[in-house]
Each structure stands twice: as structure tokens, then as C-alpha cells.
Amino acid sequence: MELTKLLCLFIFFTIEALLILLQAELNMFHLVILSCYIFLLILKSRPSPIYLVDYSCLKPPSICQIPHSTFIEHTRNFMDKQSITFMTKILNQSGQSDETYIPPALHYIPPKSDYQEVISEVHMVLFPVFEDLLAKTKLTPRDIDVLIVNCSGFCPAPSLSSIIVNKFGMREDIKSYTISGMGCSASALAIDITQNIFKSHKDSIAVVLSTEILSTGWYPGKEPSMLVINCLFRMGAAGILISNKKESKNRAKYELVKTLRTQRAYDDKGYFSAYREEDTDGYTGVTLKRNLLETAGETLRSNITILGSQILPFTEKILYGVSILKKKMVDKKSSVDIYVPNFKSVINHFCLPTSGRAVINEIGKGLNLGESDMEAALMTLHRFGNQSSSSLWYELAYLEAKERVKKGVKAWMLGMGSGPKCISIIWECIRPICGEAQRGPWADSIDGYPLG
After folding, report:
1. CB burial class (10 A; 0-12, 13-18, 19+) of residue 18?
2. For position 8, what pLDDT does the model report?
3. What is the tens place of the pLDDT at every residue in 332-371?
4. 233 near 214, Cβ under 8 Å?
5. Do residues 412 and 392 lie in contact, with contact meaning Cβ atoms separated by under 8 Å?
6. CA-CA distance, 129 to 34, in Å (whole number)?
7. Whole-number Cα distances in Å, 5 to 10, 11, 214, 437
8. Per residue, what are the HEC states of 271-296?
9. Which of 247, 190, 260, 255 is closest to 50 using CA atoms?
10. For residue range 141-185, what is the model confidence (pLDDT) as tens digits?
């Protein structure tokens, strides 16, 4: 497609140059020189391809595993019966197994949230995943030009990115950023930010470290809408290495095809659907409103409407457009649904938000996906829980471990977070990927999935 566009531009500018020649009475040599010059300007203005060289996902230590029964038993010592009953119900409906992880601070009775415990969790999740990423890619910390660290709920001073720079002795001129408050969309958002940074930084290497620090997020109060967070979020982290260097293509796994970022923070209903605040007793927590699923649907719809107009084949666009016209002009009061475009005509794999089984099913319904399309998200939720923004990378790791990612296929990462916001990232696999079942977070469990 890009080659076709370039060819059309070249022909167009050649015709323009020919017209100039006819008016200026220049010779053919000048025509060739002018056309080549214009063509080189076009090539120079094109952004460099962006490659996902490799990534790593944290496998938390086994001592951090927390079966549902143990989790509930711990809470009996410091929470009231009504709160325990509610959290038991949420856990049983969550789609999580007994093998998910929480940090050491939350294993105490009652949980600890002091600063030193929180910093210890930062070290436990970010240091190993960064070290593993460097080992995979055979790079040193000083090779990194851009560093982006995302975590929604913990914003220390010095920042998380400064902690990494200090620990690993990175360069003094590194471009470092810390992203907070973006929820489950943050890691996809960081890829979008990296793409924009690369527009003015050629031949660069960027690392994105994505996590959620849970030690600060425990809610000890009694509000049911705030207790949900205690049950759903689990320990995890991912490190992603991205490059716009030409030579990176030789060893990269994927090339970035498309990013699209939309949000609905202007809408009060959506803005307050997931909101950090104090309860009546002064305890801080995140309130999840009952309209969260509806808000997620509206946020997703606005994103995929734009995305579909850019990536779907012409026939799908026509079918979608006709169904809207029919709904508005012919059957305004009818219950006929608007046609759901077939994204599977251009996308092979889907990495969806693991915010809960109900959310995954709702998104799958909105995109007209089958069980196999939602498998990576559902199995990641079961094995690791909702790890916030890093979950997308555990899903991609699942697909790779199952050896389903072939050269030429496209994977769609869909990040949705508080705000609310939605970020779509589309990758194209550019080389065969095999042997991932023997390493990574799924190494000891991939044979047990999908669940029977």
C-alpha cells in the first residue's frame, strides 16, 4: 500500500514537473533531476518504520501466589462480614484462578502500605523485567535512548523512570518519562507516545516498562463499589523494546502498523465511571460505577468507528454505512442492529483488556468475536488476573507460546483505561516466531490452556 502511494505521488510530481518544463522550455535532463529531487524529498519526509524488537513479561515468585480461600481468610481478621461476603462473590465471578499473585505487602494481616513496602514492590516488578529484556535483546542500559515507565497509582519522587535510570546507570542524555493515572490503557498509550517521540528522534531505541503497584491500592473500607479493586487487580509487569533503526528489522518480531487514541473525558458520565476518591470514613479507593460496562462500550465504539474507516476493506465500510442509513432513515423505531464490521477480515489476533470476564465478553460481543478470538484475554485473566496495562503483553505471549503468530499476521492490542480512554495498537509479525513456549510467563502452564 505504501509503495502504491509513493508511486502515485511520483507520477503526480513528474507530471507537475513536465508542465513546468513545457512552460519554462527546459530540457529532459532538468526534468529527470527535478523529479528525482522531489521523489527524494517524499522519501525523506516519510517516518521511519517502528519495530517491536522483543518484550518480557514478569513471572512473579511463587511465594506471592494467593488462592481465593487464603485471600478471603486473611481479610476475616480485619474486615466486616458484609465486605467479606461481597468480595467472595466478586472473586468467584471474576474468572481468575487460584494461581494469581499479589505483592508481599498485601500478604500481611492487615496489609501494609508504607512507603518502604511500596518501593520494594517497585524493585521486585520492574528490575527483573528490565534485566530480562536487556538479556533477550543483548543490549546494555546505556544503549537505550528513550525510557517510558507507566504506573497509575504510585507516583514517587524521584519518579519511577528516575529509579530505573539510577539503578541501571543509564546515560545522562536519555529521554525519560513517567506516565501516571492512565489505568489499563497506559502501556498501549506509551507505544503511541513512543511513536510520536520517534518522529523527532531518528535511529533510536526506546524501552517501555509497564506495571501497576498494588501495595498502595488496597482499600480497607466498606463501600462495595470500592472493594472491587481489591479483588481484580493482580501483580505483573512488562518490558517492551522498540526501535526505529533500520538494522532493527533484522531481529525484530513485529512492525508497528497503526495507533489510534481516543477519549471521552469530556463526558461526566464516563469521567466518573472509574474515579479515585475518599469514602465517608476517609479511606481512599477507586469507585467503579454500575455504568462502567456501558461507558466502556461507548468508548470502544468511538475508537473502532475511526479505526474501521482507516483499515477495513471497502465492502465492510459499505455494509456498515448502509446499515446506519437504514437505521436512521428507514427503520428509526425498529430494533434492527447496526451492522458490526468484520474486523477479522484484516486482524488475525486480538489482545483485549482483562478488566474482568464480563468486560471481555462485552467487548467481544461489540466486535462480533468468537470464543477463540477472546481466548488469549480470558486465559490471561484466569492465570494471572487483571495486571492492568501489562496484561496485553501476557496475551501476546500466550499467542506466541501457542505458536499461533505467523509471519504476516496482524495483532490488535486494545487498551482501555480510566478517563475513559481507548488506544488501539496494530502490529504486523515480520518473522517466524517459535520456541516461546519454553520461556516467558507461560512456560510452566501453557499446556493446560485453553481450559477444557
Report:
1. middle
2. 59
3. 555 566 777 889 999 999 999 998 888 899 899 889 999 9
4. yes
5. no
6. 51
7. 9, 10, 48, 39
8. HCCEEEEECCCCCEEEEECCCHHHHH
9. 255
10. 999 999 999 998 899 999 999 999 999 999 999 999 999 988 899
